Amino acid sequence: MVQLTDDAATMIVDLVEQCSLPDGAGLRIAPRPDHPALTMSLVEVGAPRDVVVQADRARLFLAPDADRRLSGAVLDARRNQSGAAFFVQP
To answer: Which residue in 67, 29, 38, 65 sits closest to 51, CA to CA?
Structure first.
């Protein structure tokens, strides 16, 4: 399972609050249907088979394929000129 750094958890909480999403909302990572890359999006709830990673108030929803691909990795985040930047550390 992927782990969240404190920075990533804080960033997820901040984004959910900025978008006025309800409690339980979070960041979802899933494969793109037309490409092998993974995509991230804010969602109110995860999909039924998603794996949920929770760190304090932050929720990360992983589609099953994303969970397999990111197993053992660490999700980190930094602010840049464009806003939030998430990245995976193996």
So the answer is: 67
Q: Looking at beta carbons, which pairs linking 12-19 to residues 24 or more positions away fall under 8 Å?
A: 12/58, 12/59, 12/60, 12/77, 13/56, 13/57, 13/58, 14/84, 15/42, 15/84, 16/42
The CATH number of the domain covering residues in 3-89:
2.60.300.12
Predicted model pTM:
0.90
Distance of CA 73 to the CA centre of its chain: 12
Q: What is the pLDDT of residue 36?
A: 84
- Each domain of the chain, given as residue ranges in start order, spans 3-89
What phi and psi, each to the nearest 5 degrees, are found at residue 26? -170, -165
